[in-house]
Design brief:
alpha/beta; 6-stranded parallel β-sheet; about 55% helix; Sig_transdc_resp-reg_receiver; transcription regulation; phosphoprotein; DNA-binding
Length: about 220
Amino acid sequence: MIRVLLADDDPLVRTGLKMMLRGADGIEVVGEASDGAEVAAAVREHAPDVVLMDIRMPVMDGLAATRELTRRGAQAPQVIVLTTFDEHGLVLEAMRSGAAGYLVKHAVPEEIVEAVRRAACGEPALSPSAARALIRHAAVGPDDRAELARQRLASLTEREREVAEAVAEGLSNTEIGTRLHLSLGTVKAHLSSALAKLDLDNRVQLALLTHDAHPRP
């Protein structure tokens, strides 16, 4: 079972999400938080695999709560930002805060359920508009950011860089293994090693860094 925590200050939204997720096979809603300030304690209590996190909450916003969770390292759950705000800057800030996904609340239920499943497997979960925002960010990156990103990626082995580039293309671990003729376990090992060397929290941040290193004209 994939254990999910809901963090949103609107009780109607939490109720709707809970009803929707309870109808999905293999997913269990184990807890709720009505503010970002409550999330860390709720995670300790319920040990979720995935947190669906609103951005705008009254005491602590979802981005600050996400950053607090990612400091837990390997023990941190995957965070999917689920918000009404579909803004380029917020998408980037959420990803850099450590979120594994970004969805808007008007996403269809099937998209939200699939995002939870993808995040639980360590895969990115982005709405089409969020994915476009990341692509635009990569396309207009300044030269100094590109050089800094290339310097950071230079610490990786050749195989780790190949995995990072495949992650940046949006490939799943299985697809990366097929392309590079590697077992799934070997792909995961290279990915974990690359994240550790670069001090990154998840594959979305790795994709951002790789895009920064190779800005499009």
